[in-house]
Amino acid sequence: MLRDIEGIKLVVPESLEESFVSFTTTKFGSFSKGVYNGLNFGFFCGDDLVDVNRNYLLVKKVFDVKRIILLRQVHGAYVVTCDMNTPSFIEGDGLFTKEVGLGLGILTADCFNMQLIGENGSIANLHCGWRSVYEGIIERGLEKFEGEKLKKVIVGVGICEKCFEVREDFVNTVKDRFAMDECLLMENGKMFFNLRLQIEKILLENGVEKNCIEHIRYCSYCNDMFYSYRRDRVTGRMLSFLMRRR
To answer: So what family is this one in (predicted)?
Structure first.
């Protein structure tokens, strides 16, 4: 659901314990200008770095965050176990921690984000584009919990099945792992793929209970309150944020 917190418009889960903070930003609010207009968190997409840093400082102030750790996302399956001393911009596509007060940040502009919360307080934040999902980012993220039962999985904002048009090369690449009979759609001679459904299927196949999965069903491409690389090419990035308060 949408919430406005001190002038920042955010997408938040329907239900979450107060000991955790989870949100995905929209474009609305703050300092970026031009094609990045609003709340851009991407350092490497052409925006003024001063404006990007001001956006981060605003979020840290509003949510009383000491540190947000980020990655150099490469559409792979490596999940970094991190603490307060872990440097940002390690190459990877997932973050896992047991630390209180450490914000885990994933950047997206059509790819999905996925947040996982364990019963003992462990958390993970994953970058789930199709390449990362195909390479096994979800399985690697689940392995980090080492048997700790998940009590919440949030599948966030991403491109929907009506907008994610694919070609034959995509089909040939993923057909050995993805559920093409359920997730590949044909319409007017074009092919589309339901990545959200594929993500859920992988979660269920790996023992995650369906009743702990929450989908935030906003499409980044359909809805112009989000950045979309497919739609705009030169654009910003949303921040998917997860932190354990206590």
So the answer is: Belongs to the purine nucleoside phosphorylase YfiH/LACC1 family.
Is residue 14 in some structural domain?
A: yes
Q: What is the mean pLDDT of residues 227-234?
A: 96
Apex CA 216: angle with CA 112 and CA 103, to 5°? 65
In the chain, the number of structural domains is 1
Rg (CA), the chain: 17
Beta bridge partners of 68: 103
Structural element, H or E, at residue 170? helix 168-174
Name residue 62's amino acid: V
Q: Any idea which residue has 């540190």 for tokens?
A: 67
Length of the chain: 246
3-state secondary structure of 14: coil
Query: What is the pLDDT, as a whole number, of residue 29?
Result: 79
Predicted confidence band of residue 35 (pLDDT cuts 50, 70, 90):
confident
What pLDDT is stored for residue 246 in this prediction?
A: 86
Residue 169 inside a domain? The answer is no
Angle made by CA atoms 37, 63, 227, in degrees to the nearest 5: 25
Residue 137 backbone phi and psi in degrees, to 5 = -60, -35
Cα-to-chain-centroid distance, residue 54: 21
pLDDT, average across residues 65-90: 97
| 59 token code pair | 């979020």
94, with CB counted inside 10 A (0-12, 13-18, 19+), is buried
Residue 222 is part of a domain; what is its CATH number?
Answer: 3.60.140.10
Is 207 within a domain? no
Range of the domain at 31: 2-159+213-244
